[in-house]
Q: What sequence folds into this?
């Protein structure tokens, strides 16, 4: 993913609970930009490993107090 063609990640608002989106060939710089963009979305978990980026949505059960 290059900075010139990087998509906006506003679409994550429409991902269903308990889903995972995997992107490949993501640079470290792109990962850092995505983290900044997704920072205000506490229902998401983002992981990165050697160019593989996963964006996971939590279910409502994960957010409920114990």
A:
């Amino acid at each position: 993913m290059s900075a010139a063609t990087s998509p906006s990640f506003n679409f994550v608002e429409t991902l269903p609970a308990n889903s995972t989106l995997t992107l490949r060939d993501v640079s470290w710089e792109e990962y850092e930009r995505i983290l900044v963009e997704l920072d205000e979305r506490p229902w998401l978990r983002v992981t990165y490993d050697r160019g593989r980026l996963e964006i996971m949505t939590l279910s409502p059960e994960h957010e409920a107090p114990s």
Q: What stands out?
A: The longest helix spans residues 28-38. Helices lie at 28-38, 60-63.
